[in-house]
Amino acid sequence: MTVDAEGITLIGIVVPVLNEAALLPRALDAIAAARQEFERESMCRVRLVIVDDGSTDDSARIARSRPDVEVIASRHRGVGSARAAGAAHLLAGARPTQTWIASTDGDSAVPAEWLSVHHAAATSGAEVLVGQIEPDPADLTPRQLRRWRSLNPPTTEPVYIHGANLGIRGDVYLRSGGFQAASSDEDVLLVDALRHQGSRIRGTDQAPVLTSGRVRGRAPDGFARYVREELG
Fold it and tell me: Which GO molecular-function terms appear in the entry (predicted)?
């Protein structure tokens, strides 16, 4: 077992969930696999917070049935408020300078190395990590998938911002004002605020997160709208 670089002692994973009973088991399985992979190599503690954003299906029950999962309810409907509630829950009683908030979604599946990639960035000077996503090929036609890849090539520049693959150190998050109470683009708004305050933002093409390519999503102007309007 290696000893962690000085600084980050906790990675907190925040997952907002709204009626994701069909896809949430896949998301939880993927996070569990990533935790297992990471914890074999690191002494850093990991917490997973599922934020139920008013689900009317079995999402909350599914989350509560899993070990080592903290389930809270968002007081205000909307993905921005849900992510903010999860971050606040993680940071309560924690040391913000030693906490890394890793954000993903209930319709997504992180790869096994996801936590290791975030941790490596956090302990090597990054204050923010902007990761990439990959739509589930099962949800797209071959033409749509080709168009996605032409519009979103792998890059180490922090240009494609997705709440499904975003990390930020706790103290930097708090200084930025955190996730806004927006129904969509809360991830973009946060990174814009972080850029404005001069945060050290790093992009990565490692560990892209598999994300649903559905055309009817939970956020009105979220990724589903992009799939519907930009990929045809």
Answer: glycosyltransferase activity
